[in-house]
UniProtKB/TrEMBL annotation:
Bilayer-spanning residue ranges: 78-98, 161-186, 206-224, 275-295
Keywords: Cell membrane, Membrane, Receptor, Transducer, Transmembrane, Transmembrane helix
GO BP term, pick one: sensory perception of taste
Name of the molecule in the record: Gustatory receptor
Family: Belongs to the insect chemoreceptor superfamily. Gustatory receptor (GR) family.
Keyword Ribosomal protein set for record: no
Organism: Bombus vosnesenskii
Localization, UniProt: Cell membrane
Coiled-coil segments: none
Function comment: Gustatory receptor which mediates acceptance or avoidance behavior, depending on its substrates.
Name of the encoding gene: LOC117231669
Gene Ontology CC entries for this record: axon; dendrite; neuronal cell body; plasma membrane
Topology in membrane: Multi-pass membrane protein
InterPro entries named in the record: 7TM_chemorcpt (IPR013604)
Length: 304
């Protein structure tokens, strides 16, 4: 099951190369608004990626066993894991970039408040209004275009990674459930441990898969919240405006934010904390079911 799911994702990854290139091209256009802010983001991205890959790389020497068949199997498994992990990291990085783009637009909207204050406090009301209002309108229209580009990027990302996210959720559920179950049996009943290439059997892969999926959920949740915050910021800045043209542009921008949900989803489910809570609840429930089957098996064995 594990080899089929993660192997299937690798096949899909190679078949969807053009789609991933489209995502990268879209990000290169939309992320130009970050400018200097991208430097701090790139440090976080590279640090996270390097540490995660080093964590997997230290397990490569443990793949080599006395049995050549086991060695090949371990190397194949860790290759499949690294290939899938690279796609997970790529998805998380794309979401983080889109989140910072939403944050930049939100900050740009707040900066427009200074123009409004200068417009309201000016003594040369008419002439100053003639200069400030068109400038505010032009900046609002530019932010609307940028917001629409970022929203298209979110939609493209959801469409490109729909299969990958679905498989990642299923794989995380299966691996964490059975590894925790086998670890409990291994700890209390002397069940033989199948370490494969992990230095710490059962616990390490369960923690690795869960933390990786939690990082995906965290990135999607924070990006969605950042996108929703823009509407509140927009009305906070322009709630007291008297200019009918600016007010009309603010209404159009607000409608655009409402119609572009900017939710990171895999069609069947949304990537948010409630979905993570459902997975955790499902893991606990299925572990209890597995223990019930084990208990019934032990009772039947004793009666026989």
């Amino acid at each position: 099951m594990y080899a089929f799911l993660d192997g299937f994702v690798i096949v899909v990854m190679y078949l969807s190369t053009d789609a991933r290139l489209s995502v990268i091209q879209n990000l290169s256009r939309t992320s130009c608004i970050l400018l200097k802010d991208f430097k701090d983001l790139s440090k976080m991205i590279h640090t996270k990626d390097i540490l995660c890959f080093l964590f997997l790389a230290i397990h490569v020497p443990n793949c080599f066993k006395h049995n050549i068949f086991v060695t090949v199997q371990n190397l194949t498994n860790i290759y499949i894991m690294m290939a899938n992990f690279s796609m997970d990291i790529f998805y998380i990085n794309c979401v983080c970039i889109l989140k910072d783009c939403f944050k930049k637009i939100d900050e740009s909207i707040r900066q427009l408040k200074k123009l409004r204050i200068n417009d309201n406090m000016s003594t040369q009301t008419f002439m100053h209004h003639e200069r400030i209002s068109p400038l505010v309108m032009m900046k609002l229209k530019n932010l609307e275009e940028k917001h629409l580009q970022i929203s298209d990027g979110v939609e493209l990302l959801n469409h490109t990674f729909m299969i990958h996210i679905t498989v990642a959720a299923i794989t995380t559920f299966i691996v964490v459930t059975f590894d925790i179950y086998f670890y409990i049996i291994y700890s209390y009943s002397g069940f033989p441990a199948n370490s494969k290439f992990w230095y710490k059997p059962y616990v390490t892969p369960a923690a690795f898969y869960f933390i990786k999926f939690w990082m995906m959920i965290w990135a999607c949740e924070t990006a969605t919240n950042r996108a929703r915050k823009m509407k509140t910021t927009l009305w906070d800045v322009f709630s007291a405006t008297n200019d009918p043209f600016v007010k009309r542009e603010v209404e159009l921008f607000s409608l655009q934010i409402m119609h572009t949900t900017n939710i990171f989803t895999a069609k069947t489910f949304d990537m948010n904390s409630s979905f993570l809570a459902k997975i955790v609840g499902g893991i606990i429930m299925y572990i209890l079911i597995l223990f019930q089957f084990l208990l019934n098996y032990v009772v039947c064995s004793l009666h026989m």
